[in-house]
């Protein structure tokens, strides 16, 4: 009777093991590829190199006037990887409340003379695709068509890669494909795809909603990402274009894989001989099964943590709360929500290529990024006098959570385990920053950028625990270890190879057992040996 509960455990491990161990093997190999091969994207340096210099000298309308020309009905489309959907608008003539506003330049294809058109890019709250407004005429521009997208791609390539002189060749217009499945591209779908026919096989993707170049890929990125991210993330386009179905599939596989890893460790511990005979091993197996058992004891825990953290990457049940500050918390330093009418006609100075509007203490500023990656704050009108500084931000920090005690405000001049980036050169996480800690029930932390006056993020105790359960266990991106490469590389590759060997021996052993399934299994023999024997009445002896 004591083995009844063990039989389902053994059967699950046998029958599910073949399929799931095959996935484990693929995940281990593809994880090593992903250490050195990134998924195709337009990185920050490429984007800044290819964008035109901001020049609003020909603009006639300020941001407030331009946004006033728009109506809620202009934001009538929601992009998805499968298709664009119509957005329900209660009052198509209602005024627009912009959630973000930026300035950009676009090649002007309406005239015979080469030039650029100054535009405002406007986004509203929600999933609606952004729209652009001409800063000269106030017209809300229609979608970018193929010929105009080709001119944009050619202008971008000429500036980003001066050695490339070929005219971009139109390939197709796609809602999604293998390299454009990310939900980050939903605001720009469908995408116009062009080939540069250069030595590295570059392809560019141009947004049909704003005309921006939003993605590029090279030949080797596309080739190497099949054994890397496409395999590791289960990213075939056929599946990934259905986000909900893809999420369910990953959750089910990772959840079943977690159970397999737990059952494997449990069985491995149960099968160790506690008191082996003299000269005998504690491992009760021979041949390949012996190596699978030893591999499970050595790498089973790492396999479990990797597959469990992979499941947590999907944030099942939304256990990990969002890290964005609330509108009220952002306004502690902004002073007000975005108000385009506070901004005059912009003058961005020399070599600015990106500009985003925001407020600091109620004053209008443009956060301008130069081509070299440097940033500057430019007054949005003549009344912007007080600029962000660490002292003012410290003084106002208690207002982020006025109902909770402020415990500490510290200045971070280098990254640590809770504020870091694996690519510091991309400037996605600025330094120095202020870290503000509160003694509320959630143990909230905030990171503040004293250069721009922006609240970068908020984290709670749950976020920080989740950071270790997901990022820490899955990527091993502990800041100390990451700083000491190639120690990080050696550790991750060594355990990945161990996990791969464990998975492959599991596939082979499982397949052999299926082929001999008609024979009594070890579980059956063990159950029969431990079953109570029937009692028989003893016959009396003749002498009795």
Radius of gyration: 30 Å
Helix count from the secondary structure assignment: 15
* Mean pLDDT reading: 90
Structural class: alpha+beta
Order of strands across the widest beta sheet? 5-4-3-10-11-12
Backbone shape: globular
How much of the sequence lies in strands comes to: 15-25%
Oligomer: single chain
Q: Point out poorly predicted stretches.
A: none
Overall strand count: 16
The percentage helix is 25-40%
Q: Outline the biggest β-sheet.
A: 6 strands, antiparallel
Q: How far apart, in Å, are the first and last alpha carbons?
A: 38 Å
Description:
By secondary structure, the chain is α+β, with helices and mostly antiparallel strands. Among the domains are: about 1-40 and about 230-320 and about 500-530, no CATH class; about 325-460, no CATH class. About 35% of the residues lie in helices and about 15% in strands. The protein has 15 helices and 16 strands. It has helices at about 5-35, 45-50, 65-70, 145-160, 220-225, 225-230, 235-240, 245-270, 285-310, 325-335, 390-395, 460-475, 480-485, 485-515, 520-530; strands spanning about 75-80, 85, 100-105, 115-125, 130-135, 170-175, 190-195, 205, 215, 350-360, 365-370, 375-380, 405-410, 435-440, 445-450, 455-460. It has a six-stranded antiparallel sheet with strand order 5-4-3-10-11-12. A hairpin with a 5-residue loop joins strand 8 and strand 9 (about 215). Helix 2 (about 45-50) crosses helix 4 and helix 9 crosses helix 14 (about 485-515). It is globular. It starts with 5 loop residues before the first helix and ends in a 14-residue tail after the last helix. The mean pLDDT is about 90.
């Amino acid at each position: 009777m004591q083995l009844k509960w063990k039989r389902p455990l053994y059967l699950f491990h046998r029958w599910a093991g073949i399929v799931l161990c095959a996935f484990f093997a693929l995940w281990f190999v593809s994880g090593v590829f992903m250490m050195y091969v990134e998924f195709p994207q337009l990185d920050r340096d490429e984007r800044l190199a290819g964008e035109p210099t901001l020049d609003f000298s020909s603009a006639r309308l300020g941001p407030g006037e331009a946004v006033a020309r728009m109506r809620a009905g202009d934001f009538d489309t929601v992009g998805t990887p499968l298709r664009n959907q119509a957005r329900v608008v209660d009052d198509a003539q209602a005024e627009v409340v912009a959630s973000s506003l930026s300035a950009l330049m676009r090649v002007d294809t309406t005239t015979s003379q080469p030039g650029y058109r100054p535009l405002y890019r406007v986004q509203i709250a929600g999933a609606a695709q952004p729209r652009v407004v001409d800063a000269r005429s106030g017209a809300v521009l229609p979608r970018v068509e193929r010929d105009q997208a080709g001119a944009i791609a050619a202008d971008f390539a000429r500036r980003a890669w001066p050695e490339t002189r070929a005219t971009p060749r139109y390939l197709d217009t796609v809602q999604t494909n293998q390299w454009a499945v990310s939900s980050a591209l939903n605001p720009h779908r469908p995408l116009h795809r062009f080939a540069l026919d250069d030595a590295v096989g570059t392809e560019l993707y141009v947004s049909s909603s704003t005309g921006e170049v939003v993605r590029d890929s090279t030949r080797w990125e596309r080739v190497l990402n099949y054994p890397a991210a496409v395999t590791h993330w289960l990213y075939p386009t056929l599946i990934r274009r259905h986000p909900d179905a893809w999420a369910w599939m990953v959750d089910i596989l990772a959840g079943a894989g977690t159970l397999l890893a737990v059952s494997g460790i449990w069985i491995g511990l149960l099968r160790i001989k506690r008191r082996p005979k003299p000269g005998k091993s504690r491992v009760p197996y021979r041949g390949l099964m012996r190596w699978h058992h030893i591999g499970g004891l050595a790498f089973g825990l790492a396999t479990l943590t990797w597959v469990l953290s992979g499941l947590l990457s999907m944030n099942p049940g939304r256990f990990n709360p969002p890290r964005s500050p609330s509108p009220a918390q952002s306004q502690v330093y902004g002073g007000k929500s975005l108000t385009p009418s506070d901004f005059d006609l912009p003058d961005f100075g020399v070599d600015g290529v990106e500009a985003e509007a925001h407020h600091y203490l109620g004053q209008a500023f443009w956060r301008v990024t130069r081509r070299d990656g440097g940033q500057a704050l430019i007054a949005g009108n003549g009344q912007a006098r007080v600029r962000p500084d660490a002292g003012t931000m410290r003084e106002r920090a208690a207002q982020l959570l006025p109902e909770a005690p402020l415990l500490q405000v510290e200045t971070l001049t280098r990254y640590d385990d809770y504020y870091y980036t694996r690519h510091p050169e991309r400037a996605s996480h600025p330094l120095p920053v202020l870290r503000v800690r509160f003694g509320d029930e959630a143990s909230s932390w905030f990171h503040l950028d004293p250069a721009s006056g922006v609240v970068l993020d908020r984290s709670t105790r749950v976020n920080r625990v989740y950071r270790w359960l997901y990022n820490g266990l899955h990527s091993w991106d502990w800041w100390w270890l990451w700083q000491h490469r190639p120690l990080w590389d050696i550790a991750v590759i060594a355990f990945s190879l161990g996990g791969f060997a464990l998975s492959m021996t599991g596939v082979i052993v499982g397949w052999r057992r299926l082929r001999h399934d008609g024979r009594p299994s070890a579980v059956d023999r063990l159950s029969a040996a431990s079953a109570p024997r029937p009692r028989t009445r003893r016959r009396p002896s003749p002498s009795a």
